[in-house]
Amino acid sequence: MALVARALADVGTFPSPTLGFGAAVSLFVGRYRLEAGVAYLPTRSFPFPTLDAARGDIDLLLAHVGACAAFFQRPPFELGPCVSFEAGRLQSRSAGVSSPGQGAAPWLAFTAGARFGWTFVRPFSLVVGLGAGAPVVHPDLVVSGLGAVHRASPVVGRAELGLEVRF
Q: Its domain of life (predicted)?
């Protein structure tokens, strides 16, 4: 079993690159890891292209379940592929427009990538991950009178850096 706390970098979910954080718990079965966790991409503000004073705020809270395989294991290093499914809530707010509002939409995505671990002192490991996700649902952020102002990319990029403790 392991617990990990991680910093995240995301490209494509929001209008600009975003930093976030998360945590997860893992169970090990041989070379395989089953993981469940949560992540949060905090509120980011972005301007609307057609109105100088207007802006939107967006954030994402999600949960994920996934699996990794450590196909390369040479202590203290391990490397392997990972897949996961994310489900969450994308929330947005608008300001500086005649009818400010807020809304929320579901976030569902499949992700795949690679995970590298370095056990520098037992039971602590440095974990680095790099991957891409494909949103299943593409909610539009819509502002009354302006229409759609943002939509997540069809493919999003993710990077993570974390500290893991194994029990």
A: Bacteria
| Structure tokens, 104 | 């929320």
Q: Name the pTM for this structure.
A: 0.90
* Residues 104, 138: Cα–Cα separation, whole Å: 12
C-alpha to C-alpha distance for 70 and 55, rounded to whole angstroms: 44
For 80-138, the pLDDT digits (tens) are 999 999 999 998 887 877 777 788 889 999 999 999 999 999 999 999 999 999 999 87
Q: Check whether the bond before 123 is cis (ω within 30° of 0).
A: yes
Tokens (6 digits) for 48: 């609307």
Domains of the chain: 2-166 (2.40.160.20)
Please, are residues 100 and 92 in contact by the beta-carbon 8 Å criterion? no
User: How many residues appear in the chain?
Assistant: 167
Residue with tokens 């996700």: 133
pLDDT in tens, 37-64: 999 999 988 877 777 777 788 899 999 9
